[in-house]
Specification:
The protein is of the alpha/beta class and about 290 residues long. It folds into 2 domains: about 80 residues; about 200 residues, Rossmann fold (3-Layer(aba) Sandwich), CATH 3.40.50. About 45% of the residues lie in helices and about 20% in strands. The relative contact order is 0.12. Bound molecules: S-adenosylmethionine. S-adenosylmethionine binds next to loops.
């Protein structure tokens, strides 16, 4: 089987053609991938070229511009939607220990899950917040730029094949009861408790082109910035900084960090290993 490198070498002008197709997509459809990590974009385009039997990115561009349905398929390729319940369980235990006691003191808590994919992470948090007795006080927004995953997220129904893994994660995360207290089984699927599902407002929001949310107490954006280049990471972290309330918390994914970003000094580490940060207000930060 050809290695990924061999596949990439087959398309000799790919590095020249990528900026052109990304610009064309932006001009035609308004989706801006120009500052996504180039290696991520290249891998996904090569994948699409291979399964579509196309010879070059120029041919792909031509098809994308002519056929909206083909563009939607490419959009799926470019947005990686891998997720799971209680992903990286140690992150959840740290959150319980270090952030929940602070949230407990708030009369009302506004939460934004950015890049929520099919919703497993959002419901994991809702379960944790219910166990900690503060879910009632929370208003939860969950956003993604991929409408297809948002439709799945709104249902809160997941294949049973993932259940064992979810259960293990839940236990490791310090779950206080049994995950089965929060779902029912139906025709090979698990259906999450409707009171959790109804608690969340799902919405289409693009982190690159859309604007801030106001006065958010907690932003969870895990495993999204990893697909962006440094410039775009800075832009999105600025967006989070502006969206957070004065001592709001920010949670990133295990391979992401505020280190070396323009706002590095504008957040305090709550748990650097688990990528949990708290906004700090200093004049220099506000001007950045
Ligand atoms: C790997 S998933 C992460 C899901 C979840 N946060 C987790 O960690 O399990 C990345 C998600 O980010 C979304 N995404 C990528 N670029 C985005 C953008 N510009 N605006 C909003 N969502 C975006 C993708 O559609 C995808 O659902």
């Amino acid at each position: 089987m050809a290695s990924n490198q061999n596949k990439i070498e087959k398309f000799e002008n790919i590095d020249l053609e990528i900026p052109l197709i990304l610009e064309a997509i932006y001009q035609k459809y308004g989706y801006d991938f120009r500052k996504y990590s180039r290696s991520h974009i290249k891998r996904r385009l090569v994948h699409r070229l291979a399964i579509s039997n196309l010879e070059s990115v120029s041919q792909l561009q031509d098809k994308v511009l002519r056929e909206k349905d083909f563009f939607i398929e490419l959009l799926e390729d470019l947005s990686i939607n891998v997720t799971e319940m209680f992903r990286d369980p140690e992150f959840y235990s740290s959150f319980r220990e270090n952030v929940v006691p602070i949230l407990r003191t708030y009369p009302f808590i506004k939460i934004w899950h950015a890049g929520c994919s099919t919703g497993e992470e959002v419901y994991s948090f809702a379960i944790l917040l219910r166990e900690e007795g503060i879910l009632k006080r929370c208003q939860i927004y969950a956003t993604d730029f991929n409408r297809k995953v948002l439709e799945i997220a709104k249902q809160g129904i997941y294949p049973i094949r993932d259940l064992e893994h979810f259960e293990r994660n839940y236990e490791k995360s310090g779950g206080k009861s049994k995950l089965s207290d929060f779902y029912t089984m139906k025709y090979g699927s698990i259906k999450l408790d409707q009171s959790l599902v109804k608690k969340v407002v799902f919405a289409d929001h693009n982190l690159v082109t859309d604007s801030v949310f106001a006065e958010i107490d907690l932003i969870i954006c895990r495993n999204v910035l990893i697909y962006f280049n440094r410039d775009l990471q800075n832009k999105v972290i600025n967006l989070f900084y502006d969206s957070l309330s004065s001592s709001g918390h920010l949670c990133l994914g295990s391979k992401e960090s505020l280190k070396f970003t323009a706002k590095e000094n504008c957040f305090a580490d709550i748990d650097e290993k688990q990528k949990i940060y708290k906004k700090s207000l200093s004049k220099s930060c506000i001007k950045l």
